[in-house]
Amino acid sequence: MRKNSAASEPHVAEPRLYRVVAERVQQMIQSEKIGPGERLPAERDLAGKLSVSRASLREALIALELGGVVEVRGGSGVYVCEKPLPAAVPETGPGPFEVLAARRLIETEIAGIAAKVATGAAVDAILKAVEEMEHTHHDRASNEAADRNFHLAIARATGNTALVSVIECLWNNRGTLWQKLKEHYQTDELRLQTLPDHRKILEAIASHDPAGARQAMRAHLERVTRTFSRG
Question: Structural domain of residue 76, as residue ranges?
């Protein structure tokens, strides 16, 4: 029997968008002879020049920074490293905005389910995480741990262990690109701005309001996306 040639061909994964954009930025640096220590065009101008979103460009620039090609200086711009490394853009897994898009789809529904079935003990666990975030907003590491506990507590409130595993996977997939993004663009002020979001999610779940919980979670994750894509 003749085998289907299409079925037998190995699957070749599409390159992640931020890697494609990063390679285009590298090509631009070379073709326009932007030398070590020189500044790249402003993000808005560069995104327009490459016809990509600022979110995709920002992921690409962070990847290039991890690869030793550029240096992102907060409030100043992006500069070619004094001794840029010729290595390829590192593979760091899903981009931060890919993960955020997945979280908007999944966690919005999880919040709605939690609002339907959460027990008093489950609501108390979510409240504890919210209070921990409020007390640690000045400490990045502690605040991030509390934030993770908050989202996991909501998943646990559904009573579905598979959903808990999904949220753990999404958080574990944020990787080095996400950490660099937060390092450059998140401040104490921005962490404070998200605290009311968490309270609204908690209140909707405690009130057994699925529609309100979905809306509050979606609004929260959209705020996070806007914050990191525009700075």
Answer: 17-80
Q: How many angstroms separate the CA atoms of 111 and 106, rounded? A: 9
Is residue 80 classed as helix, strand or coil in its secondary structure? Answer: strand
* pLDDT tens-digit series, residues 53-98: 888 888 888 888 888 888 888 778 899 987 755 555 555 567 888 8
Distance CA 47, CA 61 (A): 11
CATH (domain of 39):
1.10.10.10
Task: Confirm if 160 and 208 have CB atoms less than 8 A apart.
Answer: no
Residues 6+ positions from 17 with CB-CB distance below 8 Å:
56, 59, 95
179-219 confidence digits (pLDDT tens) = 777 777 777 777 788 899 999 999 999 999 999 999 999 99
Scored b (16 or more CB within 10 A) or e, 3-22 reads eeeeeeeeeeeeebbbbebb
Q: What is the pLDDT of residues 5-19, one digit of tens each?
A: 444 454 445 667 888
In a 10 Å sphere around its CB, with 0-12 CB exposed, 13-18 middle and 19+ buried, how is residue 62 labelled? buried
Q: Report the alpha-carbon distance of residue 158 to residue 163 in Å, rounded.
A: 8
Indicate the number of domains in the chain: 2
According to DSSP, residue 202 is labeled: H
Task: Specify whether 70 is located in the same domain as 128.
Answer: no
Q: pTM here? A: 0.74
Residues 6+ apart with CB under 8 A from 45: none
- The answer on 176 and 71 residing in a single domain is no
Residue 51 within a domain = yes
